[in-house]
């Protein structure tokens, strides 16, 4: 399940701008990967030391520093102060329950969005906050844990594929955001597959598990929607606001990114509508099934009740010796066959009647 | 059913602008049809070679090149590069899950929308992406499969009917879009007919199939709506934005097109409301029916239960010899008729009582 | 019922601007009524010939030409070409499934709206398209069938009542639109009366017919709303846009008309909410009624079941001769009264218990 | 109940600006109260003659003329023509189904809103239209019936409390509107109290009356909302539009009034949400109660059915004399106690089983 | 529970600007705390006398006066008149049912918002109105009762932590508002925990209490939403409007505050959606459970009914002596075992049949 991003109650009572890490505590090392490139060459470096980053700050080449592991608050703070980030930015980087947004500062743009992964084992969707600090010559990206969808971008830089080596940090940021949004499609496709399985299940054998799965998916959609909805505003404001760090050359790409986020939103809304429809079907098919059973059983009882009544009549002990009117049938030669026949006639008659009224 | 346009997960991890065809793979040939005309004459050509298209690129006459079969990615790319299309446009042409939109480039306008067909055999609505590349002297249209609603336009060009031969590429694009939107009406009329059939069925004999059909139609409406809603924005922005490729002469026609898309949207919304209403009726009529059956059966049982009780009483074995108080009725001369009469009175009395309270 | 304005599928595949009549085919004659007036005098003329209209085209007096019967496509077209209307206008006049809208042309304004009548006999609401072509000195109105709510306007012109004879074509158009909107109130009042009847029915004797009537009214509201909603935008744009054919003198009247359309919308929305509420009540009262019946019957059965059980016990055939323990009650002097008494005690006891728990 | 303001169908077919009174016909006298004041002195006058009003028209002091009883159409018209009101204004004053709105004329502003009273006896909310005609030196107010919430204002004028005597007609109009809006709070507080009573009832003893009360309140909220929603727009346009009759000095007061109307709207929306919630609770608690009863009764039947079956077995008449296998139990010494014991064991066993499964 | 902020009906009929306290009446003392600071030093003072406040009015240092206990209307009024507040402001301070809003006056800005506390003992959320009067050199805060979340701010001022001592009153107001908004997160986190507990309960043992808790939480969300929704507009207008008392230096902080309020809103909306989902699950799981019980019991009855019928047959008293056809089975050697066997076969047969149809 997407963990419901808990409101950052930890921070209540602290001065604004206090850097506190609000994500899950992991014990892993911090992981710094530095990529520095221009048209001519590209350098790749992995490090655990913040000092290595400082070297690249004022270089005119494009420098992309990626940090995995925000729980090393001190190291993150150190890096941030090295790049002269505003305290509110540092707070936002560490507070991993941000809504996607853009903050424009004098020297850099701060972007934050969420990355989703479909966990194959648990069937859950995990989510993680990714922060971008976009300067003229550097791009810092902060992730909660290692493991991302950026490898393809690294390969593209290494192999000088496409236009990436010829463009600036803004294009790099766009490419990374695009890979995150593309990832949403993967997650949604997985959800779509689950929905198809669920639909078949609905028709064939609806169970309480089906209900819970529907509810679970509905909830996932609520949470996905919550984290993707503001993304639209974010990309839209990137396009619209004249941000000095973002050159007009990539506006066409931002338009494309915007279209993709709209498409993600559309798909989520459509899925929500469909899941609601599935809930309706589930409820109606369950109640249909129940009704069927109850109907058959009640019909069943309805047929036997008069038969038992007939048997009850001939089980009465009226004394035939005292009066010839007292249950003469009991003394008839064909009394018993007559009684059985009467029962058969009544039973079959009722069956026919019920059948005529289409009750089963 | 309208196939739920799957999010393009195939593309995740690839650089933006990578041309990948995301539609269904069909084995048919690519199909290029070229129409070139001005006031004086019109040429029609069908070809499988891209090279034929290049000839028409800079001709001052109106050139309409229609391509069926996007799975021939190489050929499509070749054509696009020949007309100097932006890589993002090529990507969008091939990625057949686009939302309707307009992209304005320096040399051309890229338009994408969806075409719907009602499949007579399966009763499903099929949808297909159609891309328009509108330049000053050429119009490229890309379809996923052969078979379209453009034939009437071709005939009009050939026969020089209406104003089409006197106008430019923008009018041609409008006429084609208009024929696509007109087609929506055909599809909706079909849906309307299905709804009327369904309504009669609802009143006469609601069944689980009715429920599934309602659900199916609801889903179709969700998907139709998803693909037509953005069309409104698209046409609206064509009207509003000053696009150099679109001359002010056709603004009146675009207004008309806009009115039509609004009308399509209105009809879809109305249908959605109606289908919701039908679901309510279905559920209530099913539960009414069930209630009727249960009520009759329960009444039935309720009448026989006291009768059986009476029979049970006279089936008791109290020894009349030991005491004159022990079941003297059994020895009465009219004992048995009395018992039967008692049962008749009780039974008829209850029937009258139930009737009085309007229970059946 | 308001016939669901079918999307104009007939038109698919035809060039834009093709005049095709999409309304119901009636066999009646075309009916042209010409009213020509200024401050001094007013002329009334009824004709079947288009030529008569042409005479009035350039007269400086106010000329109102009303045409009933759009199925005479040729005559309508002839009239339109005489007044030099744009092909798209002619198409819109004949296509009787238009949304209310305003189209401003150089020489005239085209207005289209819907007129509703409550059919006393069938209880249905019929709707009809009315088109206005408003020029500087002429006003053309097109109706599908004869019979309208314009007679009071004709009388006012004849009798020179109010300001109508002193004003231009724009005021005349306003007066006619106002009479159409006023008519909505009549229709809504009828619906309001039906709703009150329905509410009483709901409380007194809800039946499946009640359900169907509710559904029917809900549907009527959906369709009324669909045709009146865009009217608001239309009147609003008449007020707002500076249209040369509409003089600023009548802006105050247009404001009034706007207020009326808002009021119509408000009433429709309120009715929709109320009808939804009625549906809830219906469903809950039906299920309440059903529950009542089931409860009483089940209680009934519950009381008799133990009584029958007691009778069953004393109907057992244990041999009292073989053992003094075998059913000694059967040989008691007060055996039978005891058994009957036991049943009475158990029965009454249960009644009291059920009563105590407020089960009936 | 708030009487559903019937659309003014009476007016259909009449020329715009025809003064027709659409409210309920009451037989009371017209009631004219004139208050004339400036900083120095205040005059109070009650009259039945319109002529008295004319005297005050051009006086530079603040003149407030309040008319109760719109059914005296002639008198109202006379007054209006004396103050040179536009025919559309006169029509609006008399047509008592107006939406709250502002109409700005050259010499005056026309304001219309609705006043609500909670009728202590019937528990219903009555509503009445109040019109304001605000000129530079006069304020006309028109009410349908006598009895208003303006007495406190009259007292304030008389006693020269607050700033009212120092301000112009615009402030007076504001004060009167403020007292109307304050009155909404009284009405809503009453509704709030009713809701609390209802909630307790819901938990303790839900009945069909509860359902009807909920429905009734829901309907009241729909109607209240309908009449208060446009009030917001009205006050907002008073604030925003530069109206010559309203001096900028009172803009702060209008802001305050605006805040109050928003608060009224908020409360109504919250009440609506809560009433919906109560409906859910009602339905679920009714069905819970029903289920409880059915469950207990069914359990009850389920226990007795096997017991009766056992009694049925030993009521069979197999002939023990013909075979030692035929019902030897009947001849056992402990046969009867054994049978009773068997029944007890089965009955208690089932009770335990049901208890274990938490079925009651 | 959040007490439903009652509309201020007390005020109806009073002149606007009349100061009336509408909150709960508490008997505690008024509590005035004065904090005065600049870069160099900070003074802390607690007092019960208004006169102490007057001294600080014109000092150029930052003066923060916090008043707990609005029921001392006279003292509050005295303070307000000392700081020359507008009567409408005084009214708003005392009327504790305000919507969050900003009122800009010449000399100060009036801000009002609501503070929420989760009451650990009752599990309810209490809410309280907090007013801010922000002047150039002073900040007045008014709270209904003692006990707030401002202590951390006081400590920060005392210890000169962060930038607070270097900034003006606007920053102080921001810091206080920020601490109020941060507190919402604490409250929401508590609600989130309650929801998780509730969800487990839903799955494990749904009861009527669960239903009531869900309803209670839904209601809390409605009320929280009502008080937080306008906060967004308030913060937004602080950011947007150019307010002289608020320096541009803190716009970045206001952006941050705005983001936080959006996040609070998002979380509330998400919670609302989730609670609705929980209601659906509750209803469906209750009805599932009920259905299960009814099904098993009905199956149970269905099996015994035919068995009892068989016993009834062999309990009939047909006279075997009168005819060899009369119940010969009774005289068979294996008659009784045959009957029992027949019952066993029928019972087991039905069990198998029900099992086959997956009825249990």
UniProtKB/TrEMBL annotation, chains A, B, C, D, E:
It is a multi-pass membrane protein. It comes from the Bacteria. Its main location: membrane. One of its GO terms (cellular component) is plasma membrane. Keywords: Cell membrane, Ion transport, Magnesium, Membrane, Transmembrane, Transmembrane helix, Transport. The keyword Cell membrane applies. The keyword Protease does not apply. The chain crosses the membrane at residues 296-314, 334-354. It holds the Pfam family CorA. It is found in: Cell membrane; Membrane. GO terms for molecular function: cobalt ion binding; cobalt ion transmembrane transporter activity; magnesium ion binding; magnesium ion transmembrane transporter activity. Belongs to the CorA metal ion transporter (MIT) (TC 1.A.35) family. Mediates influx of magnesium ions. This is Magnesium transport protein CorA.
């Amino acid at each position: 399940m997407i963990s419901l991003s808990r409101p950052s109650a930890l921070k209540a009572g602290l001065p604004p701008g206090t850097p506190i890490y609000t994500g899950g505590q992991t014990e892993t090392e911090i992981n710094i990967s530095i990529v520095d490139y221009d048209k001519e060459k590209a350098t790749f470096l992995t490090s655990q030391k913040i000092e290595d980053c400082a070297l690249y700050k004022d270089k005119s080449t494009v420098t992309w520093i990626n940090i995995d592991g925000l729980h090393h608050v001190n190291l993150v703070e150190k890096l941030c102060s090295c790049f002269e980030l505003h305290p509110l930015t540092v707070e936002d980087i560490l507070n991993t329950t941000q809504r996607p947004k853009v903050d424009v500062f004098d020297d850099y743009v701060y972007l934050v969005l969420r990355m989703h992964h479909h966990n194959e084992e648990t069937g859950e969707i995990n989510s993680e906050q990714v922060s971008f600090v976009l300067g003229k010559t550097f791009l810092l990206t902060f992730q909660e844990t290692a493991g991302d969808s950026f490898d393809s971008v690294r390969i593209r830089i290494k192999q000088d594929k496409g236009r990436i080596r010829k463009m600036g940090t803004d294009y790099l940021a766009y490419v990374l955001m695009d890979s995150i949004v593309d990832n949403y499609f993967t997650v949604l496709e997985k959800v779509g597959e689950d929905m198809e399985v669920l639909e078949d299940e609905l028709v064939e054998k609806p169970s309480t598990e089906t209900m819970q799965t529907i509810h679970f998916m509905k909830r996932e959609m609520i949470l996905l929607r919550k984290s993707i909805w503001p993304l639209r505003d974010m990309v839209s404001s990137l396009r619209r606001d004249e941000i000095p760090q973002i050159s007009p050359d990539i506006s066409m790409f931002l338009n494309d990114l915007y279209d993709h986020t709209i498409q993600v939103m559309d798909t989520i809304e459509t899925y929500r509508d469909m899941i609601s429809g599935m809930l309706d079907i589930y409820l109606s098919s369950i109640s249909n099934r129940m009704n069927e059973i109850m109907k058959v059983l009640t019909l069943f009882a309805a047929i036997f009740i008069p038969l038992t009544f007939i048997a009850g009549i001939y089980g009465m002990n009226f004394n035939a010796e005292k009066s010839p009117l007292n249950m003469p049938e009991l003394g008839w030669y064909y009394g018993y066959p007559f009684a059985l026949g009467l029962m058969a006639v009544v039973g079959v008659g009722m069956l026919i009647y019920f059948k005529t009224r289409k009750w089963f």
